[in-house]
């Protein structure tokens, strides 16, 4: 099983993207990347995957929201490196989705 937290798929070789994944996959990320190729690659990867694959887009998040940065440094939003989603809501959502994904796919 594999989870990508706002992963960057642009450098992944096209042969891998077009082949898809054979293990369950969950992608959680922000609504927009400056380079549209990232989500084009992700959509192709998901469509080609033979195992379950899901893309969960979280409004009001930025890349650093998928790390511990905003949880330990509340000024991160003032510097523009974290989004507007409530930190408690984000932490609960990420934790619950990650745990439930692995419980479903690793047992």
UniProtKB/TrEMBL annotation:
Gene3D superfamilies listed in its UniProt record: alpha/beta hydrolase
Cited Pfam families: PAF-AH_p_II
InterPro entries registered for this protein in UniProt: AB_hydrolase_fold
Superkingdom, natural source: Archaea
Protein name as annotated: Alpha/beta hydrolase
